[in-house]
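Project standup — Tuesday

K.O.: blocked on the structure for the chain from last sprint. Re-posting the sequence here as requested.
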Amino acid sequence: MFNSSILSIVLFCGMCAAEGMRRDDIVRWKAGQLLAQTPLGAKFNPDVYPNAVNEPFARTNSDGFVEPYQGTSRARQFDEGKNYLYPIPPSQIGLYPNGELKQNPGWE
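H.V.: unblocked you, prediction finished:
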């Protein structure tokens, strides 16, 4: 099996290849809690563009990242008991009349 340093290298290579932030990547690595976080926008440095500061860019966090969803009421949620699996279509469950195929947890 992999040791932790090899796994770290594999994860780092995935990040360099722009992987790790798609939903499938997050689910594969069992990091669903990341999907519950509010995404940030680009990092904005007002010193570089002093005349470009307008209302959307004025809403940055303490690290300088734009917070595009600030003030919205839509909360992002990830239920680990449900959202790691997709629901099984009812038409597929119906192919097993003896109850051999059950719906995935949380999708009943």
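K.O.: great, moving the ticket to review. The chain has three domains: 1-37, 40-75, 83-108. The radius of gyration is 21 Å.
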